[in-house]
Structures are given as structure tokens and as C-alpha cells.
Amino acid sequence: MKESNCLIVASIFAPIRGGSATVYENIARLSGDGRAAVLATWRHYGTGMEIDGWREHDARCGYPVSRLELLRPRMLPPPRNKLVSAWRQLATDIPLKLKVAASALKLVREHRIGVVCIGELVSGAWIGEFLRRVTGSKLVFYVHGEEITTRYATGSFGARRLKTLRGADAIVAVSRFTADTLEKDFGVRRDRIFLIPNGVDTERFTSGSDDGVLRNRYNLGSGPIILCVGRLVPRKGFDQTIRAMPAVLQRVPDARLVIVGEGDQMEELKGIAASQGIADKVCFTGPVSQEDLVRAYRASALFAMPNRTMPDGDTEGFGLVFLEANACGRTVVGGRAGGCGRRDRRPEDGTAREWRGRPGYRKRLHLHSHRRRIQIVAGEGRAGTRKGQ
């Protein structure tokens, strides 16, 4: 049977850093021979800012990338009334959809696309459905978790989500949790669900010594570093990590908390650090390069992300950062919410710790604040990552 070329459609794509962007980039990169093309954006729909380094990335990535300014409307406050909502539809949403549809259709024909893979279910489902209707291409949704667990307002995509998922030719689920949710909550046939757990490049993310570059750049001193990596949103639990730090500092005064990433919760998290009197002990780096991300893992003594499920159902579908940290030889402390708790239940490696509130989390951080224990557990985490490939 002849294989089909694939079009990956994603607003969150390299050089943006994050779990889904990394996954889609690697799919395109490893497909080879022009088997995959990408439709992405050069502006971030959330911040409204141009994506740093997108031209340089596209020039050297080795696969075809076509970019529009946006694939979905900017994130704006809710309209004040129906008149404003109608105006947005006419002035912004409809013209944007027409432009996206025309560009996507052109790519399908240029690259002889037989499969369209939609990376963002909520905002991109319509693109895949349109292309399948017009060109007969197969439709695949790449589903991570939060897009099927989060409850949406009446009249939004949430009302159409079930029909959309059931109508797909195939769905890739990144975790057993996601696959089970698709089958049990949405009635998707099991033979249409393909479980492909996210992987980590163990040639890039490797154990190694701290070269001191980040310590010098951010004036972190020589003490142990607790590292957080991810989009700064409530479900990651970074606020609880900050609140746990005063107790950690009582035992390890020279410890530092380093938070890598960007997001809407940035100012709130800085405020929490200030209210705890530890603003000088918490470093927010913002987004970093791939090279500096590996440096951050290697510089850390411990990786922490006490992820949790939010009241609206938003949760972590996989947690790729846990594997990246383990691949760099670092132990991790995290939550069991969503898809994170099913990946590794061994008590010795620190992975997938259940979140039961701040006191228990402090205790877990205390356990790993002892340097000798960190060295033993880090080696076990690295071995576990390689075994799981």
C-alpha cells in the first residue's frame, strides 16, 4: 500500500518551546524525504508577538514549512454583547478562515498530501474537516489530554467535540490516560485510537556536568538548583513549588528555584515569590534555547512539577519535561494528575509523585534536598527513561 504525504497543521510549532511543539517538530524532522509538510504561524496567537527565530528555523529545518500570521483568532477578552461578537466574526474570524483554507488547500495540492494531521483539536478541527471534504484526504487528530478533559462554555467547540472526534479517521493519543478518555468519555472506537507516547531525544538530552553558564548568567550561586520547566499556567503547579521553597530553604539555605518558560501566570508567580519573602531565591528565565534547556537540566539537582487537574478539567496529558529531566540524569517530583501518573510508578525514581497538598510536597522536596540521595536517584531516572524507549 502506497504511503501518503502528511500535512501537519499547528499554531504551536518550533521554534516555540513546549511539549506539543517539540513532538510536531520531531515528526516532521524524522519523516524524511519530504514526506511531511507543515502549516504553522509566525505570530503567537496568545501573546500577539512575532515568534522569535522562525525564519532561521525554517531555513535550516530540512522540511517544508509554510507560515501565515495566524491560524486562529487572537485571544481576546469575551465580547461585551452580541453586536461586538458579530462584528468580530465578520471583520476578523471569517476573513482569517478564508485565508487559512486557501493556504491549506494549496499545500495539499502542492505536496500531494493524503493525510492531514491537526495538532490543536479545539482551534484546528475545522481545517481538517474542510480539507477532507474538499480533497478526500484522511483526517488525524493528535490529542494530548487537556483539549478533551477541559469543559468549555455552552455554544463553544465543546458542544461539537464529541462528533468531531468520532468522525476522525484516526486519533493519536500521547498517553494511556488520553486513550482511555477518548474511548470511555467520547465513545471513539478503540481501533481508531493509536497510542504513541511522547518520546525524548536521548542524543540531545543527555546526562552531563554543570558547565556553570546559567549559574553565571543568572547569578544563581553554587548551591543546589530545583528546576521547573513548562508553560506558566495553573495546572503545572509552579505556585505550589514556590510556596514550598521557604521550608526547603530552612534546610538548604543556598538552594535556588529556577523556572524556565513563559505564560499568563508569570506576574502572579513573581508576586507569590515576593509575598513569601524569597524573590531573590527564585529565578524566572523566560523561554530559553534548546542548548540552554539542556544546560538547565544538567545544572539542577532536582526537577519539580506538581501538576494537578483544575476545576474546569484542564490537566496534563503526558508531561514530556519529566522524560527530558530523566534523560539528563535528573530525578523528578511531580503529580499523578492526568496522564503523568501512569507512566512510572516505581517508588525509587521520584517520578509521578501524587499531589496531595503542600505539606506532602514539601516533604518530598526535603527528601531530595540531600545531595547523596539526589545522585543515587538521578542515575535511576536516566536508566528508566532509556528502558522506556
Structural commentary:
- The chain is of the alpha/beta class.
- The protein folds into 2 domains: 5-195, Glycogen Phosphorylase B (Rossmann fold, 3-Layer(aba) Sandwich), CATH 3.40.50; 213-387, Glycogen Phosphorylase B (Rossmann fold, 3-Layer(aba) Sandwich), CATH 3.40.50.2000.
- 41% of the residues lie in helices and 14% in strands.
- The chain has helices spanning 19-31, 54-60, 82-110, 121-135, 146-149, 161-166, 176-186, 213-218, 238-251, 266-275, 290-299, 320-327, 358-367, 371-387; strands at 5-9, 36-41, 65-68, 113-118, 138-143, 170-173, 193-195, 225-229, 256-260, 282-286, 302-305, 332-334.
- A 7-stranded parallel beta sheet has the order 3-2-1-4-5-6-7, sandwiched between helices. It has a 5-stranded parallel beta sheet with strand order 10-9-8-11-12, with helices on both faces.
- Helix 3 (82-110) packs across helix 4, helix 9 (238-251) runs parallel beside helix 10 (266-275) and helix 12 crosses helix 14 (371-387).
- The radius of gyration is 21 Å and the shape is globular.
- 41% of the residues are buried.
